[in-house]
Amino acid sequence: MRVAIVENTKITHHGQVGVALHEVGALVDVYRPFRDGVLPELGSFDALISFGGEQSALDDHTHPYLLRLGTLMAKSAGEGVAVLGICLGAQVFARGLGADNHLGTAQEFGWCKVSLKPEAQLDPVLNALPDVFDIFEWHSDTFTLPPNTVHLATSAVAGVQCFRHGRAGYGMQFHFEASRAVARDWARTFPDLSEKMHPGWAEVLPQRERTQGIHADAHGLTLARAWVKLI
How far apart are CA 64 and CA 15, in angstroms? Predict the structure, then answer.
């Protein structure tokens, strides 16, 4: 299988998604349109993944490829191709499907509680998770539920944490790819941003890893493997 990965910032961890892709021997093509604007061609891949980034889904003035990316994700999912948007990727996917993006209204950081909607019980990716689970978050923006999608997960801060469009198109606001190792690297690489999002984060990180991160690692790998099976 050939998987197109879109990285939206210079430091992008594939994390648990990368583990699941490696397990099945996927061929991965990486695109970095924040540098050159280049995106994969529609129909040139078996699956499409868009990871997170520091920009908003509406930052067309600095990242003019964002609208094209949302359209590519929407069209691909509409054709039954496996599509995955994580954090910014989910926000861009939602935009491509006709949702409204809301900036700076829904800040979540660290391992947070996410709750499944009843529809998730029959979903092939989320049905193995507990009704309430810990998973890593790092965002300030959110979006409305796109038309013609299934609402699968929510939180007290961001109403739409996960949706499905078509057979295998998923938008996930939370960073399920972020293992404890990824969380540690983010804390080392972005200490000022982490402190701004969660004062004292460096001090509480080790304890949060033990109480929430260990479970989130398992949930993230479960999600990654289940989505990869849909490719």
Answer: 27
Quickly state the pLDDT bin for 216 (edges 50, 70, 90).
very high
Which of 70, 61, 110 shows the shortest CA–CA distance to 89? 70
What are 147's two structure tokens? 């038309």
Q: Mind listing the domains of the chain with CATH numbers? A: 2-228 (3.40.50.880)
Distance of CA 95 to the CA centre of its chain: 14
Give the tens place of pLDDT for each residue, 147-193: 999 999 999 999 999 999 999 999 999 999 999 999 999 999 999 99
Strand partners of residue 133: 114
Is 14 within 8 Å of 5 (Cβ atoms)?
yes
Alpha carbon 109 to its chain centroid, in Å, reads 14
Number of Cβ within 10 Å of residue 196's Cβ equals 11
Rounded average pLDDT over 119-142: 98
Reading the block at residue 103, the tokens are: 């900036």
* Three-class SS state of 120: helix
Alpha carbons 209 and 165: distance in angstroms, whole number: 32
d(CA 66, CA 95): 9
Degrees to nearest 5, angle at CA 148 with 57 and 64:
20
Instruction: Find the helix packing angle between 214-228 and 180-189, rounded to 10°.
Output: 110
Query: Model confidence at 89, in pLDDT bands (50, 70, 90)?
Result: very high
CA 79 to chain centre: 20
Q: What is the pLDDT of residues 201-213, one digit of tens each?
A: 999 999 999 999 9
Distance of alpha carbon 86 from alpha carbon 172, whole angstroms: 5
